[in-house]
Amino acid sequence: MSEMPSKEPITFERPSSLYENLSSRFQLQDRNFQRQYAHLYCERLLTMRKNIVAGAKRKWGSDVIIRKLFELKNNEKCCIVGTFYKHMELKPNILQEISEEHNLIPQPKKDKYVSDSDTLILEDELQRICLVGNINIQKACTGMVAAVLGEEKESGKFHVEDTCFMHLNQPAPFPTLEEDRYIFFISGLGLGQEGKNLMGLQLMVDLITGQLGSQEEQEKYSKVIRVILAGDGLSYDTQDKTVLNTAKYLSRKVQATTVEGVKELDDVLTQLVSNVPVDIMPGEFDPTNGILPQQPLHRCMFPQANIYKTLNCVTNPYDAKVDGFRILGTSGQAITDIYQYTTNENRLEILEETLKTGHIAPTAPDTLACYPFLKEDPFILPEIPHVYFAGNQSKFESKLWEDEAGRKCLLLTIPRFSQTQSGVMLNLRTMEASAVVFSSEFMQ
């Protein structure tokens, strides 16, 4: 009796992709902290003004009167351009932090700092004026640059009729792909936490690397051409609590108190980079500088993964092209900060607002720590990206944003893995994104 011929195992080859890192503007060339932050605000206004004025003329007509604040006349309808400053009674300040340190006046922790008494002020290089009228104060935040149309009344306040933000440059058309190509987004692994169950994380790694799954699943995951780890590979528990409780105005180092978290992260990265390119961004709890833009994690921390060229340590924010698709995003600190200082509850809407206003982190340096840049503001959006994401959010959401000119951008909020056991799978061919859950506990 002849033996039945055995079936050869089916193998799937992971396709290659073209990659270009565009994050050079986020790389710090020097470390000079002696400068004042006024230079950054001035550069932001000067850089964005020309574009905003052009957008205002398109929106309100080429004959609209453009005035500086010192040129304003009572009851003259005109347009002024400047930077928002939101005066908030509940906003933490340095004196309160000093009081907390000396146990004099302890301040309760708040999820949001908005109140009905908040006022919105517009300031240019020389003066400032209070804004009232048709403008949503509670959805605006400090640092946004805008043009407002209206008139100054005898009260000395500017009564707003309409608002116009930066008109972003036209993006390149969406590239056309003949076959499915996937990018897998993940954030907030939270490694280094005592007693943490790593089963969901290992399941994710095994699926991406082809160690688990049905034939259909293996074929699908073999088309993942890149993994983007959007910050917080380490847990809050790995931080030195004395450092975390230090006043924000002092030198604050984010450091791991145990090497276990880094070792676990190295193990995970080694399994991934042996199969697929990985871009790892730093986050709030990772061992790098705590201010934006965060510099790449040092490769020496990952002795096992470091031997693979497919390990790519990148900045936060992150900007790159993958197979012609421009992908821009952050580890989420900017979105979380804006959430605290506005009434907006939806993180995806906040992400959309930063796109509309043309700035990745408008609240920096007011309430979000950043480097004191002198001759540039790298957080200004150069053009509309194809994909714009924020990591370490409470849940996954996506939206294909489109403006009146037909320009499109896919917006993504990436959930924190340690809380949701999920990542995000993006098909570049169809521009469809979906959450992938790696634990039955979180499946609905």
TrEMBL record:
Nucleus recorded as keyword: yes
Superkingdom classification of source: Eukaryota
Gene Ontology MF terms: DNA binding
Domain DNA polymerase delta subunit OB-fold, chain residue ranges per copy: 36-162
Alphabetic keyword roster: DNA replication, Nucleus
Predominant localisation class: nucleus
One BP annotation, GO: mitotic DNA replication
Subcellular location: Nucleus
Similarity comment: family membership: Belongs to the DNA polymerase delta/II small subunit family.
Protein name: DNA polymerase delta subunit 2
Organism expressing this protein natively: Holothuria leucospilota (Black long sea cucumber)
Lineage of the species this protein comes from: Eukaryota, Metazoa, Echinodermata, Eleutherozoa, Echinozoa
